[in-house]
Amino acid sequence: MRTSSRLDPLLARLPFALDDTDRLNAVYQRWTCSGGAGDRDVIDLWTYCFIWRYFLSKAARDGLRRPSDMDALVARAFRRTCRSRRDATTIVRYASWVSVVCRNTFINYVQRARVVQSIDDMGGDLISEPPPAYDDAPRVRRALLSAIDRLPAYLQDTARLFFVDGCTFEMISASIGKPVPTVRTYKFRALDLLRDDPVLRRTSECFAPAT
Q: On the CB side of 29, how many CA atoms lie within 13 Å of its CA?
């Protein structure tokens, strides 16, 4: 298969097996302490290979809407992983955290595909007016991310994963290495603080739909 032959040379460059998550986690912990370029390269290589294999498996089992979606999913998950790990402070098991990112990326893809399919099934004649515009959504998202940055440090990762990425409590638990009851407590504590954040409240009021 084309995608397998594309992956094999990269797997051969890994200093350990792709499923040896204990060694991978050890390299990640060392990198967070020292910031060594060699460790970062190993982490990036492992991450890319893992993401490729994850979506290859999903494509074989569940199918994709278009063949080109494979490359888009891999790129999206890889970018999200590299971007988010710079800001994460409580990743305990890096391999599990990457798996969470992949799973969430695929869930979002499936949900979008269902929406597109529903629109296709309706037919153009059934749409009497254009859908509402959501040009302000990026500004609201930025306001939410800024408000999360103002939360206590121990709540920030849980808040991002839940309110921004849409992860379940179980996925967040695997990501931050805390039991599900603790994750639930963090989520509700973060929600209370976000509701009281004056900047976020002003932004939400400005862009709330008129009634």
A: 8
Tens of pLDDT, residue by residue over 147-159, are 888 999 999 888 8
Q: Shortest CA distance to 148 belongs to which of 183, 194, 83, 186?
A: 194
CATH topology of domain 132-211: Arc Repressor Mutant, subunit A (1.10.10)
DSSP 88-121: -S--S-HHHHHHHHHHHHHHHHHHHHHHHHHHHH
Quickly list H helices, the chain. 2-13, 21-34, 37-62, 69-87, 94-122, 137-149, 153-159, 169-176, 180-195, 198-207
- 149, 98, 74, 184: CA torsion to nearest 10: -50
Q: Report the interhelical angle of 94-122 vs 169-176 (nearest 10°).
A: 150
Query: Global pTM?
Result: 0.55
Structure token pair of residue 124: 């153009």
Domain-wise residue ranges, the chain: 1-126, 132-211
